[in-house]
Amino acid sequence: MWVSSAAVAWFNEESGLFLEKKDHKTFIPALLSVSTAPGAKVFWFFFSEKNFLLLSTMLDLPWLNESLYPDWGQRFRVKRQLAHVQSAYQDIVIFESYSHGRVMVLDGCIQITERDEFVYQEMLAHVPLLEHGNARRVLIIGAGDGGVLRRVLMHATVERAVMVEIDGDVIRLAQEHLPDIGGDAWRDARAEIVVGDGIAYVRDAAAESFDVIIVDSTDPAGVGEVLFSDAFYANCARILAAGGLIVNQCGVPFMQADELRETSLRRRRAFDHVSAYVAAVPTYVGGLMALGIASKSMPLGVTSVETIQERAEAAGVAGRCGYWSPDIHLGSFKLPPYIARGLG
């Protein structure tokens, strides 16, 4: 149960009037324990600094509505809340849903669900590593749930994987409430977990110290905004070795077209080859998810299926995925025109 101060209203469906309303000055995400009078709906209102969530019930069945878009979205039927923390950086909620297993929500936006996390994580990790073909040193920025780290460490060819997550509460809560997502990656001797600022880490890292950089950030606002800047991409290019690659999520172009367009322009200032590929992640609503990818020296998305298969077998990931495959790998670079236009 979520217990704190919030705003509560009883709504009578017949009269269309609010029977009672209590407004509190402290806008903390909360769920009050209330009883429902006959013929009434109960609404629980959630507030945080930047996002607004509405959790409503009918017949005692709670639903959480995502607040990513003001006019359209998705909702989840909530079985129970597992955690709610206001960290130094963002509001974090983890709950158990009826349809998607456990779900992590950051500042009102769905970040990951147990049911479909494999789609995003596999495509974010396997595509750049197998495009590269010989990635031994991998830097992950963000991805505090551990899912990307686990997929990177599936590659037997990886010798070192550094994960830099600014919010230690995300790591702690994921390890406690979403243990299957990170799995054994947390204890892998090749893994180095850094709770700190990814911008500072990239700025201070030695030149040519990584082969692949994976940026799993929130959208370019708030805590994730600086991970889309010119200075950040310039430093990433500096610390990547020859043939190095960087990949980062660029939102859902049907709803967030500016993300791919603007980040592609910025990547071009630091990298010779810029492209994107897509993945169909069910809970990232609005169509295909775009993943922007850039290379210092090698063309992208042109490696043959046969070569990708050989690399996957050598890495030990072939046949172990639920979404990624050599055919999906190559096909994901074939963009619909409305998404390709975002590359400029």
Overall CATH architecture of the largest domain = 3-Layer(aba) Sandwich
Q: Give the neighbour order of strands across the main sheet.
A: 2-1-3-4-5-6-7-8-9
Overall 3D form: globular
> Distance between the terminal alpha carbons, to the nearest Å?
48 Å
CATH class of the largest domain: Alpha Beta
CATH topology label of the largest domain:
Rossmann fold
CATH superfamily label of the largest domain: Vaccinia Virus protein VP39
- What is the overall pLDDT average? 85
Q: How can the largest sheet be summarized?
A: 9 strands, antiparallel
* Total beta strands: 16
Secondary-structure-derived class: alpha+beta
Overall radius of gyration: 21 Å
Percent of residues in beta strands: 25-35%
Low-confidence stretches: 1-59
The number of distinct structural domains comes to: 2
Series of secondary-structure elements, N-terminal to C-terminal: EEEEEEEEEHEHEHHEHEHEHEEHHH
Question: Which percent bin holds the helix content?
Answer: 25-40%
- Give the helix tally: 10
Structure write-up:
The protein is 25% helix and 32% strand. The protein is an alpha+beta fold and 344 residues long. The protein has 2 domains: 7-113, Spermidine synthase, tetramerisation domain (Spermidine Synthase, Chain: A, domain 2), CATH 2.30.140; 117-343, Vaccinia Virus protein VP39 (Rossmann fold), CATH 3.40.50. The strands form 2 sheets. The protein has a 9-stranded antiparallel beta sheet, with helices on one face. The longest helix is centred in the middle third of the chain and has 16 residues, at 117-132. It is globular, with a radius of gyration of 21 Å. The termini are far apart.
